[in-house]
Specification:
This protein has 190 residues and is an alpha/beta fold. It has one domain (3-184): Maf protein, CATH 3.90.950. It has helices at 10-18, 41-59, 85-95, 131-140, 167-171, 175-184; strands at 3-6, 25-26, 64-74, 77-78, 99-109, 115-126, 160-164. Helix 1 links the parallel strand 1 and strand 2. 39% of the residues are buried. The model has no long low-confidence stretch (mean pLDDT 96).
Length: 190
């Protein structure tokens, strides 16, 4: 049974390894990830994960396709994957001293083309960040390409007062849900 990971994220590959899964191939899906007008964070994450899976499934008929998307949301607002220092700074200033949600959606498309979806909703609470802390985090460039401008598996872990939910989902792949979907599709685990 061939498993294709539809993601360019090295973190997702590493996380799969934690549950003993090694994809046969990694084939990132290059799609437009612009939120639709009025689209809420959970719907956005689910749609993007599904769209990635469908695109890659066309290139690998008969394989299992695993795709995902992780979104940081402050209320109804979808925070960007920070591509500039200014974006990262705005995200960190917004998240400072408050709770936010990290939504991690996954889609698994089986060999017959049937798609199964899961969404992991997690709460993260940041400490109030001092300007010097934000400056130092921006300088380390760990934020680049990260949803909400931070990576929980790096230096930003020191900003987090509490989490409620799945640490792996906040990193980018909810392992409990992923394992359940793979088992349901007959992928050999254990």
């Amino acid at each position: 049974m061939r498993l294709i990971l539809a993601s360019a994220s090295p973190r997702r590959c590493e996380l799969l390894g934690q549950i003993g899964v090694s994809p046969c191939a990694v084939d990132p899906a290059d799609i437009d990830e612009t939120p639709l007008k009025g689209e809420l964070p959970a719907a956005y994450a689910a749609r993007v994960a599904a769209d990635k899976g469908v695109l890659v499934a066309r290139r690998h008929p008969g394989a299992l396709i695993l795709s995902g998307d992780t979104v940081v949301a402050a209320g109804r607002r979808i925070l960007p994957k920070a591509e500039s220092e200014g974006q990262a700074r705005k995200c960190l200033e917004l998240l400072s001293g408050r709770r936010h949600r990290v939504l991690s959606a996954i889609t698994l498309i089986d060999a017959e083309g049937k798609a199964r979806h899961r969404l992991s909703t997690n709460i993260v609470i940041f400490k109030r960040l001092e300007r010097a802390e934000i400056d130092a985090y921006i300088a380390c460039e760990e934020w680049h390409g990260k949803a909400g401008g931070y990576a929980i598996q790096g230096r930003a872990a020191g900003f987090i007062r509490a989490i409620q939910g799945s640490h792996s989902a906040i990193m980018g792949l909810p392992l409990y849900e992923t394992r359940a979907l793979l088992k349901a599709a007959g992928y050999p685990l254990d």
